[in-house]
C-alpha cells in the first residue's frame, strides 16, 4: 500500500452518477472553497492498484486574450463547460477601453461589470464557478516564466500573456488541455513557436468550412428536360422539381441557371421549392434604370428591386459593379417613391474607434470614406451637382458606424460598403437598425480584408452570408467579372 496525495489544485465537485463508477465534473477549486464545503486535503490511503492512469479531463482551461473579450461581449458565456483564466494584464487592457464609444467600449464595460459581480463569491483570485453558465473563472496573477524570459522579454502585454500561458500550462497541463484563445494572429504564432497551444475564437464561424470553393456564392446550375424548359418559358415557373437531378442544395432567392439537354437555358431563381423565371433584362432596366452586363448582375438587380427581400448581400472582385448598380438602383427606386432616402455607411479604420480629429462636422469627417459613392455619381452624371442636392435635401444620409447605435431606418435603402472589414457584431448592430419598408445591402470583397484579426472566413460579411443563406428574407450573389478596366481585372486575378 502506498500513500498518494490528493490533488490540491482540483477536487471532485458535482453530483455523482447512480452507478458504482461515480463521475464528477472537475474544476480548479481553492483551499478556502474546500474549507467552506467541509472538505480537506488530508492524505488518503489508496491501494496502488486502484490508481488508474487517467486521460485529461473533458473540461479545458481557456486563457482569454483581450482581443477576444473586446471582439465579443458574450465570449465568456459561449465557452461554457470550461475553465476560463484571465491574465491580470488583460484586465489592465480592458480598463483602457471602458470609456470608448461603440462596440469596443460596450464589450469592455460588460466584462468589467460581470467580473465585478463575481467578487461577492469566493473571489476571482481563488476562482469562481458560475453554475448557470457552467464556467469557472479565475484571474491569473501574471508571473514571469524564468525558462522563456530570455526569448520572450516580458516588456509587452502580449509577452506577459505568453508568460501567463506558459505558467498555467506547467501548473495544470497534466490534468487539462490549456489553450490560449486570441484573435491576434501573431500572438498565436508566438505561442506555437514556444510549443504552447493557441487557437482563434471560433464561436462565430466554426460552422464555416475553410475552403473558398465551398463558400456560398448564390449561384447554381441544374439540368432540365427540353419539355420542362419550354414549360418554364410558357408558365414562368416549374413547380415539380422531382424530375430534376439536384446535385446541390438550393436556397431561397438563389440564382439557378437551368440548362436543357439540347443546349437551351434559362435564368431562374429558387423560391419555396420552385424555380421561377428571372424577369427579363428589359423589365429589370425599367425597374432599376440599370442594364445588367451578365447573369449575376441581372440577378442582383432583381434582388435590389424585390420589395420582399430586405437583406441583400453582394461580393465580388474590384470593379465588378457592386457599388454602382446598388447606388443607381437605389436612386431609381427613390424616384419611383418606393423608398424615401439612402443611408450610406462603411467601416472606418481603425474599426470600432472614433472618427478622430479630422476638422468639420460628421459629413466632412466622413468625406474621405464617401469617395466610392462620389466617384459613381461623377461617372454617371458628369458632375456632383445632383449628389450635393440629394445630400442637402437629406435624401442621402451618411451614418458613421460610431454613431449608428440606437437609430432606426424606415423607408430607406441602407448601403454598407466594404462590409468585409466589419465584424459580425458590427454588422448585427447595423442590420438590427433596419425598420419598416427598408432594405439593407451589404457589399464587399472577402479577398480584401483589411481588418486585423479576421480573414476571408471570419469577417462579418462571410458570416452573415453563411448564417442567413437558408432564410427567405435574404438573397446573395457573387460577381466574378470586373468591368472597371482590362488592367484592373487582370491585376485582381494575377497580383
Short key terms for the protein model shown above:
single chain; 21 strands; six-stranded parallel sheet; globular; alpha/beta; 16 helices; 495 residues; 4 domains; six-stranded mixed sheet; 32% helix; Archaeosine Trna-guanine Transglycosylase, Chain: A, domain 4; Rossmann fold
Structural notes for this entry:
It is built from 16 helices and 21 strands. The protein has helices spanning 31-36, 66-71, 88-97, 102-117, 157-172, 185-193, 226-235, 281-288, 295-305, 322-335, 362-366, 371-381, 385-392, 424-431, 460-468, 486-494, and strands at 2-4, 10-12, 26-28, 44-46, 61-64, 82-87, 128-130, 135-140, 178-181, 198-199, 219-224, 237-238, 254-260, 265-271, 274-277, 311-316, 341-345, 396-398, 412-416, 439-444, 474-479. The strands form five sheets. The chain has a six-stranded mixed sheet. A six-stranded parallel sheet has the order 18-17-19-20-16-21, sandwiched between helices. A five-stranded mixed sheet has the order 11-13-14-15-12, sandwiched between helices. The radius of gyration is 28 Å and the shape is globular. Mean pLDDT is 83; it is low at 1-26, 36-53 and 350-355.
Number of strands: 21
Report the sheet with the most strands, covering strand number, pairing sense and barrel closure.
6 strands, mixed
Helix content: 25-40%
Percent of sequence in beta strands? 15-25%
Q: What's the domain count?
A: 4
Distance between the termini: 71 Å
The helix tally amounts to 16
**CATH architecture label of the largest domain:** 3-Layer(aba) Sandwich
Determine the CATH superfamily of the largest domain.
P-loop containing nucleotide triphosphate hydrolases
Low-confidence sequence ranges = 1-26, 36-53, 350-355
Instruction: State the shape.
Output: globular
Q: Using only CA atoms, what is the Rg?
A: 28 Å
Structural class: alpha/beta
Amino acid at each position: 500500500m502506498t500513500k498518494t496525495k490528493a490533488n490540491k489544485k482540483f477536487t471532485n465537485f458535482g453530483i455523482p452518477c447512480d452507478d458504482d463508477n461515480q463521475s464528477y465534473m472537475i474544476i480548479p477549486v481553492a483551499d478556502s472553497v474546500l474549507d467552506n464545503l467541509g472538505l480537506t486535503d488530508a492524505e488518503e490511503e489508496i491501494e496502488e492498484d486502484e490508481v488508474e492512469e487517467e486521460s485529461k479531463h473533458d473540461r479545458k482551461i481557456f486563457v482569454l486574450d483581450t482581443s477576444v473579450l473586446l471582439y465579443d461581449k458574450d465570449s465568456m458565456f459561449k465557452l461554457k463547460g470550461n475553465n476560463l483564466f484571465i491574465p491580470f494584464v488583460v484586465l489592465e487592457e480592458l480598463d483602457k477601453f471602458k470609456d470608448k464609444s461603440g462596440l469596443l467600449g460596450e464589450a469592455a464595460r460588460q466584462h468589467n461589470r460581470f467580473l465585478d459581480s463575481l467578487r461577492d463569491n469566493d473571489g476571482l483570485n481563488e476562482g469562481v464557478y458560475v453554475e448557470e453558465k457552467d464556467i469557472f473563472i479565475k484571474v491569473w496573477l501574471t508571473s514571469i516564466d524564468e525558462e522563456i524570459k530570455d526569448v520572450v522579454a516580458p516588456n509587452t502585454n502580449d509577452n506577459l500573456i505568453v508568460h501567463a500561458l506558459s505558467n498555467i500550462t506547467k501548473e495544470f497541463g497534466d490534468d487539462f488541455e490549456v489553450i490560449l484563445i486570441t484573435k491576434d494572429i501573431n500572438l498565436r504564432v508566438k505561442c506555437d513557436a514556444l510549443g504552447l497551444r493557441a487557437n482563434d475564437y471560433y464561436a462565430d464561424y466554426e460552422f464555416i468550412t475553410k475552403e473558398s470553393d465551398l463558400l456560398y456564392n448564390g449561384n447554381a446550375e441544374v439540368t432540365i428536360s427540353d419539355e420542362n424548359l419550354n414549360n418554364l418559358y410558357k408558365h414562368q415557373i416549374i413547380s415539380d422539381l422531382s424530375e430534376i437531378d439536384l446535385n446541390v442544395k438550393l436556397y431561397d432567392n438563389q440564382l439557378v441557371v437551368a440548362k436543357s439537354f439540347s443546349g437551351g437555358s434559362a435564368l431562374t431563381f429558387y423560391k419555396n421549392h420552385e424555380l421561377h423565371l428571372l424577369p427579363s433584362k428589359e423589365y429589370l432596366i425599367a425597374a432599376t434604370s440599370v442594364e445588367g452586363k451578365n447573369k449575376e448582375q441581372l440577378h442582383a438587380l432583381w434582388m435590389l428591386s424585390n420589395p420582399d427581400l430586405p437583406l441583400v448581400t453582394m461580393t465580388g472582385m474590384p470593379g465588378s459593379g457592386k457599388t454602382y448598380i446598388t447606388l443607381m438602383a437605389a436612386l431609381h427606386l427613390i424616384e419611383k417613391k418606393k423608398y424615401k432616402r439612402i443611408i450610406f455607411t462603411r467601416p472606418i479604420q481603425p474599426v470600432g474607434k472614433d472618427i478622430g480629429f479630422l476638422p468639420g462636422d460628421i459629413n466632412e469627417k466622413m468625406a474621405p470614406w464617401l469617395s466610392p459613392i462620389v466617384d459613381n455619381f461623377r461617372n454617371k452624371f458628369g458632375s456632383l451637382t445632383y449628389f450635393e442636392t440629394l445630400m442637402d435635401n437629406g435624401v442621402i444620409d451618411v451614418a458613421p458606424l460610431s454613431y449608428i447605435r440606437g437609430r432606426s431606418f424606415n423607408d430607406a435603402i441602407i448601403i454598407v460598403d466594404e462590409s468585409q472589414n466589419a465584424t459580425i457584431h458590427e454588422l448585427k448592430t447595423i442590420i438590427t437598425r433596419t425598420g419598416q419598408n427598408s432594405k439593407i445591402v451589404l457589399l464587399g470583397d472577402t479577398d480584401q480584408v483589411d481588418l486585423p484579426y479576421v480573414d476571408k472566413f471570419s469577417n462579418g460579411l462571410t458570416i452573415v452570408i453563411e448564417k442567413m443563406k437558408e432564410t427567405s428574407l435574404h438573397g446573395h450573389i457573387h460577381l466574378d467579372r470586373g468591368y472597371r478596366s482590362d488592367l484592373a481585372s487582370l491585376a485582381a486575378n494575377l497580383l
